[in-house]
Amino acid sequence: MDIGSVSTKGVVLDSENRILASEYLWTEADPVEATRKTIKSLRKQLPDTVRIRSVGTTGSARRLIGSMLEANSVKNEITAHAVGTLSRHLDVHTILEIGGQDSKIILIDDGVVTDYAMNSLCAAGTGAFLSSQAGRLGLSVEELGDTALRSRNPARIAARCTVFAESDLVHKAQAGHKKEDLVAGLCHAVASNYLNNVGKGKRIRSPIVFQGGVSKNKGVLKAFQTELAAEIHVDANSHLMGAVGAAILSQKTGCHIPFDFHITDFSFHTKSCECTGCANHCEIIRFFRDGDLLDSWGGRCEKGPVNNS
User: Fold this and answer.
1) Claim to verify: residue 31 and residue 163 sit in the same structural domain
2) For residue 49, with 0-12 CB atoms within 10 Å meaning exposed, 13-18 middle and 19 or more buried, which class applies?
3) Gap between the Cα atoms of 208 and 227, Å rounded
4) Three-class SS of residue 244?
5) Does position 134 have pLDDT exceeding 90, yes or no?
6) Same domain, 195 and 278
7) pTM of the model
8) Same domain for 278 and 160
């Protein structure tokens, strides 16, 4: 499972790391419910004889969902995306990843991550940014790629931040630029913003793999190819690579867990409280299943007692 702030991805792999079932849906600020829907979807795609031997989680809600699913592997996105990509592209040197709310670059040498960078502070250049601008232009986010490819004269859009980009987009639209030129300009701005911020100072070498939801946007893909003057690979399952990596990492632990798809029948909820054990006043998050405490986190010391209340 790869549980991000915008989308939730789930896959089931066989012993050869082939995808037997997959799901991709919006998190909608409720990772528990998104996971519940994903698990139910995966179950429907599989024969009754299939048994899950291990579970891994990654993404911003990996700790929460790891507790929910009693995962035997909970890993960060850098590790999961690298492992997932290497399972499909053994010779990859650079991974470009743009998700809904953040983006990252991962550099690999001989199958080992040597450097990486993440950008979670500026929304410009992410999937959420493109989605909001698509709405401004009266398009669905799925239409952006094909619309951009029709452009013959892309508009120059400033993408240093969302405020500048939106202001520039409105100005260019009022100046009479064609819609396809505006979209192409946005796609080039996304690529430029990424390379000048996330990729700044990084040695980007081929083979290059582009993944994350934005990798499905043909306009952004073309912009990256133009900026880097290189071929960029987009796997058919590029949006699932984090989940694939999480599954492989869980398998590598060698631990087998008794996973039951009926876990979705339980009731899950969280409670937060302020620890009064010391002056830090840490916020403690407690996660419950049918009223029983599964896990808790947030404290920086052992002074704060955690109970079922």
Assistant:
1) no
2) exposed
3) 13
4) helix
5) no
6) no
7) 0.86
8) no
